[in-house]
Amino acid sequence: MKSTAPTRKPGRPLSFDRQAALKQAMLTFWQHGYETTSINDLTAAMGISAPSLYTAFGDKQQLFLESTRLYATAPEDLQRQLDQAPTAQSAARAMLYAAAHGFTGTSTPRGCLLASATASGSSTSQAVQHAVAAIRQDIITRLTARIAQDITSGALPPATSAAALAAMVVAVIQGMSILARDGSTRESLLGIADCALTCWPA
After folding, report:
1. How far is the C-alpha of 112 from the C-alpha of 129, rounded, in Å?
2. Residue pair 135/72 in contact by the 8 Å Cβ criterion
3. Is 97 exposed, middle or buried (0-12, 13-18, 19+ CB in 10 A)?
4. Angle at 62 between CA 60 and CA 66, to 5 degrees
5. For the whole model, what pTM was predicted?
6. Most buried among 7, 27, 69, 199, using CB within 10 Å?
7. 50-57 and 39-46 are packed helices; what angle lies between their axes, rounded to 10 degrees?
8. What is the pLDDT of residues 42-91, one digit of tens each?
9. pLDDT tens string 125-169
């Protein structure tokens, strides 16, 4: 469906800090999910009017998609971390531990924005579902390639399924998000991460 949101007039300066407003939108989506977050919720959190939101960000869907880009680790940064890790297992451990800490932060909502976004299932916009799925798939693809390097070098057994191992890490991270929103402690999530890593082939 074509958006009817007004477009921003060229050269017209914003009367608010766009990046600060975007951060507040991200936190609001993170707390409530995509579908249950209303324009009123967003404008209240961002401290701007609805016309200003449409002018600066387009519409709710575009605002959410931009929020996910702010939230998620940039692909080039993730790739750098994977490249610099001494082994794929150490890279996976870093990802799992970072999730345990990030999902239980004191200054942000619990859990993961990506998991929260599509919690309402089929009622969520297809574009939103596809965008979130694409972010997760990109992580799996990059981690798969890093695991494959260890298989090639002999650090992992030849029969290791790089794709399955990478998907397992992301699945555990998403499960940790749900448990964090249920109230699980950081120590509990770190324990889950350590347990998952015991499945790593030797």
Report:
1. 15
2. yes
3. middle
4. 115
5. 0.85
6. 27
7. 90
8. 999 999 999 999 999 999 999 999 999 999 988 999 999 999 999 999 99
9. 888 889 999 999 999 999 999 999 999 999 999 999 999 999 999
